Amino acid sequence: MARPGYGCCLDRPRGRTGGGGPPDRLGARRTGKTRTGPATNTAVLLNNASSVAAVVPTSPASAAPSAPFLGPRIAIVGFVALTGAFGLNLAAGQFFAPLTDSRGWELGMLSAAAGLNTAVSGLAQPALGRLIDRVGTRPVLAACLALMGAAFVLMASADTVWQWLAAYGLLAGIGFAGSSSLAVTVLISRWYVRDRARVLPRVFLGINAGQLTLVPLGGILIERAGYRAAYLTLGLTVLALVVPLVALLAVSHPRDVGQQPDGRPNPPELMGPRTTLAEA
Fold this sequence. Notes:
Blueprint: H1 7-10, H2 25-31, H3 38-55, H4 71-91, H5 96-103, H6 107-135, H7 137-157, H8 161-179, H9 181-191, H10 196-203, H11 205-225, H12 227-249, H13 268-271
């Protein structure tokens, strides 16, 4: 006869549970299986969900906003720098006739000064290239543009041919060497790798802009106000407008502001080994 209160349990097979009663631990141990309930399944699902969330990358919309790419601004700076440098350099030739008429300086002497300007510019470029490698493009570009502007201001007040020759042949020659194609090409090439072939020709349109603006302006000023006023106006224009823009807005290298060339990562084969201008 079954004991009172135990009959319901003796009729059940061991190792199983009936109805909503608790599981039989002895049966579970005998079969080697662990019973799982709703709470255990929920914990497993939560662990899997957290693992998947850790693998899935964060969407760009949820990422912190980054600073805008400064490459277009650098391209504008290069364009303006070429406008000022080539504008002054190409405008210098139209001063020879009024200098001969008003000062009596021989045209052969003035032409020799143009040759000296070109020679000094070519000889100064290797040294300026090493300086760019050492201190960066921005200070060299701004300083050389200032030197060109100052040379034109000095030519406005030159009373002897030797003063004029020193300002045009030496100062303007050195200034043009560091503010023309050399420095601007380095600046743009460091900001653009993949898009360099597209951006660089557009920046070099600044050469044409200098021909179309500063050269005609110099001719008009010579005719209406005299060569001294023309020298002074062209020089002060570069000193007041071009030099501050380069000094304030140019950035020598994208890493200086935590950016990358082209505004995005580039494959290593595009970047190539880092070569200085002195090595080149």
